[in-house]
Amino acid sequence: MTELSSEKLINEIIEILADAEAPIISTGAGMSSESGVRTFRGEDGYWREHRAEDLASPEGLRKDPELVWEWYGERLKAYEDIQPHAGYHALVQLQDQLGKLPVVTQNVDGLLQKAGLIDVVELHGNLKTASCINRCGAPSVPINEELFEHLPPHCSCGSILRPDVVLFGEQLPEQALRRALNLAETCDLILVIGTSMLVYPASSLPLIVLRRGLPVIEINPEETPLTSLAGVISIHGAAGQILPLLVEGVSLR
Ligand code: BV8
Ligand code: ZN
């Protein structure tokens, strides 16, 4: 981990970012916390009241489908009025400057797309649709207000529905994972923003780039398992503050 004054560190990162021709971005829940979205493991984290296994897991869903649907319903409600913060707009500015900026996200809040990022790889699915927990073959249904009238919602076959997110213990969507791994293998820099680096395989992407000897830059107010790795440049700060400084600096180069 590089320990420099933040001013010097910002300038160093601007230099590196400006030289990159094919950077990629990786985001976790912390990327949305300045838009008012609760993270999973911080002080305001969701997991504080519930354990991950009770909510985002097939066992948890089967054991208490109502609790899990209430939790996702509460999150969806929160997503209705959230807006992308300055860090998101900075990423869109960088995307416009470079002509492309693939973003691999663990988030399901839709803020990246709302801000105008066009190449978003949703590693952990999304909350747009729900499907049959027993995969009976009935088509997925849109997750809308109606679905929350009678919890838990049911499939036409009588089984309960599950949100089309990736639950713990489930494989990631094959296409999304393949694309994400390919991006980690072909990019020339990865900017890792707002993830605790605890959930696999999302957490393996920066390690692939690091092993290729290419710049791995982390933006996070806290230390993560990535921070102390040799070769990682970590800036301790909030995405909404740091990203505009970086992108502004790159655009002035
Ligand atoms: C899989 C659903 C094959 C959607 C989620 C033992 C060891 C290692 C791995 C495993 C193991 N046992 C099982 C596993 C695999 C498991 C896993 O990794 N478990 C961990 C917890 C140990 N992974 C899986 O099961 C995956 N599938 O691997 O299949 C397999 C299967 C079984 C066994 C082995 C292999 C599926 C993972 C997907 C799970 N679904 N969510 C939803 O509800 O949203 S994961 C959930 O955690 C969210 O998706 C979330 O995105 C994700 C990661 O959390 P973060 O995004 O990092 O958020 P967090 O709150 O943790 O951190 C926020 C960070 O932001 C903090 O660092 C904070 O400092 C920072 N921050 C705060 N404010 C700001 C900020 N940063 C910048 N600016 C700010 N302003
Ligand atoms: Zn069904």
Protein described:
The protein has 253 residues and is α/β, with parallel strands linked by helices. The protein folds into two domains: 1-37 and 83-124 and 171-253, Rossmann fold, CATH 3.40.50.1220; 38-81 and 126-165, SIR2/SIRT2 'Small Domain'. It is 36% helix and 15% strand. It is built from nine helices and nine strands. The strands form two sheets. The chain has a six-stranded parallel β-sheet with strand order 3-2-1-7-8-9, with helices on both faces. Strands 5-4-6 form a three-stranded antiparallel β-sheet, with helices on one face. Strand 7, helix 8 and strand 8 form a beta-alpha-beta unit. It starts with 5 loop residues before the first helix and ends with a helix. The model has no long low-confidence stretch (mean pLDDT 94). It binds ligand BV8 and zinc ion.
Notable traits:
alpha/beta; Rossmann fold; SIR2/SIRT2 'Small Domain'; 6-stranded parallel β-sheet; 3-stranded antiparallel β-sheet; 9 strands; binds ligand BV8; binds zinc ion
Q: Which homologous superfamily in CATH is the superfamily of the largest domain?
A: TPP-binding domain
CATH class of the largest domain: Alpha Beta
Strand order of the largest sheet: 3-2-1-7-8-9
Per DSSP, the total helix count is 9
The helix content is: 25-40%
Element string (H = helix, E = strand): HEHHHHEHEEEEHEHEEH
Backbone shape: elongated
Main sheet makeup: 6 strands, parallel
Percent range for β-strand residues = 15-25%
Number of domains: 2
Model regions low in confidence, pLDDT < 50 over at least 5 residues: none
